[in-house]
Amino acid sequence: MKKKKVNLRDLNKTSSDTHKRNDAHNQSSAESIVKFKVYVPAIFSFVMLIIGIAMDYFDVAFFKDWIRIVWYAVAYLPVGFPVIKEGWNSIKNGDFFTEFLLMSIATIGAFAIGEYPEGVAVMLFYAVGELFQSAAVKRAKGSIKALLDVRPNEALVYRDNNYVSVNPETVAIGEKVQVRVGEKIPLDGILLSEKGSFNTAALTGESKPDTIAKGEKVFAGSINLDGVIEIKTTKEFKDSSIARILDMVQNATARKSKTELFIRKFAKIYTPIVVFLAIALTFLPYFFVDDYVFSDWLYRALIFLVISCPCALVISIPLGYFGGLGAASKNGILFKGASYLDEMTKVNTVVMDKTGTVTKGVFKIKEIKAIGWKEPEFMKYLMAMEEQSTHPIAKAIMDYKADGEDFQASEVSEVAGKGLKGTVNGKTVLVGNKPLMISNNIEVPSETDNIVESIVMVSIEGKFAGYVIIADELKDDAHEAIKQIRESGISKIIMLSGDKDSITQQVAKEMGIDTAKGGLLPEDKLNEVEKLMSENDGRVAFIGDGINDAPVLAVSDVGIAMGGLGSDVAIETADVIIQTDQPSKIAKAIKIGRSTRRIVYQNIALAFGVKAVVLVLGAVGLATMWEAVFADVGVALLAILNAVRLQKMKW
Q1: Contact assessment for residue 347 and residue 539, using Cβ atoms and an 8 Å cutoff
Q2: pLDDT along the chain (651 residues), means of 10
Q3: Beta-strand relationship, 349-352 and 189-191
Q4: Is 233 helix (H, G, I), strand (E, B) or coil?
Q5: pTM to 2 decimals?
Q6: Does the annotation mark 210 as catalytic?
Q7: Strand ordering across the sheet containing 210-213
Q8: Per annotation, catalytic residue among 353, 545, 549, 575
């Protein structure tokens, strides 16, 4: 009987895959156990509290004196001890007045005056609030953390006539890397294979697969969808687009908004004031009230402490900004910090570059006009000449598809500043601008005088044979972008470009932009933007895409870079990066900023409003510890739920 040959490589791969699945299962089980353990103290305290309250209600005979105290103490410790410990550590570090200290004083004080169930309840609900906060923060960071999952962890590099698996950080520039179907591209590079299809959703927010041709750029973190491909690396891992984006994402939350910074400073002043007011509320009535009872006024002071705990503000405001940053990231918009979410809401003027921002930055044939020749034959003469040139306009012309055999040019020479002269099929051919035609006594039709785009004129055997108009294409969503920016309440939209003024004006007119200036150097753009910023409290957002826009991106109130995956300078300089290269995302960025600010202001109003009412009721003896719990933990929970709404919003 013939034995089937066993492929050791396949066997090892199968074994490896099995181990990976088992490891993933074990890891998932371990994570579930860890998550459950987090909730155990709160569940234990809750069960003990409910049983204790039930025994109090039914007046169980043995549930008296020290047994009752011990029961509630055991219920208190799982949730209370971590808070007391945190408060003690804060005191040791010189930070006396924290919410941990407030909660510790209030609950221990409740035990001191015999209000055991309320002391446990306050700390239990505080612990539950912290758990809710932790879960909400994780959810708000979900879209941001999703980027961390696209960090490639291995690269198959061609070394010593074989592909070996190594850490991407050890791969040098210029090495050849193989990427299999379903794997992540480990480093930025150029595609060596004929073509490839890639999922770039984690990088750009764009769900549609991106098809790349041989010689074009591919970016680390993209997922290969179709066949085994090879790339040549162009950057080290630390300089790759994904590494830079990850670094910015991780640092974004460290850049606080002014609102967030104010609340944190406010809490540091507010907390000691509250502690001293609570002390005053306990002892001062002794001098003014005839029937002063220490335990009654201490109880009021403890209620006052619980109500005034600033955790609802300290938790919900950063959480609101987390939500905004996460929602933006999910939509392919990267804010470099919470402060820029705030700045985006104040913008009243949008200034944009033209090439690469609202246009694709790639020359395409817009119109072909052949005079006395059939179009395909005319184009073959032109293409034979332009094949000798490396100019971007020549590349656009060479993209034309003509049936039949190509023509060959000979004796091609360049006429400085004017074009090319050569021979095709034995005929003298001139290709270039109007001065080239005039200098060779070629009569040019007057209709060409009104064409503002780049025009390539052709003469064959001393006669004008036609022309081709070359233009930069508008991006697919360019018109929609202007419409949405106007709908978001911004009426002042300006275009500044280094391209010819006539072309800039035509593009601006086509897009419905009222003001445009062309022929500008980088310093001219800078002067124009600075002038706008100084006029009538102007808050300017500038949108650009490259090195020449870097000075303006840096000086504007909000610098927005288009196509952040490809432009290193834009990534370094801008405050906001539109990762999908779509100008329509600008309006979305403004809307996300406004939604975030609205949520944050709602949370501030909710926290202050409820606390003010219950503080007054507590001071005059009309509120119990249960109302205090709602005013603190309840408000914090409501604020957290409100902030989480940002993850569900559509813009």
Answers
A1: yes
A2: 42 46 52 73 95 93 93 96 91 82 82 87 81 66 53 86 92 95 90 88 62 87 89 89 64 60 71 85 91 89 78 73 84 85 92 88 88 94 88 85 87 87 95 94 91 91 95 89 94 89 90 90 88 86 81 90 64 82 93 93 87 82 79 78 84 80
A3: unpaired
A4: strand
A5: 0.67
A6: no
A7: 210-213, 195-199, 223-224
A8: 353
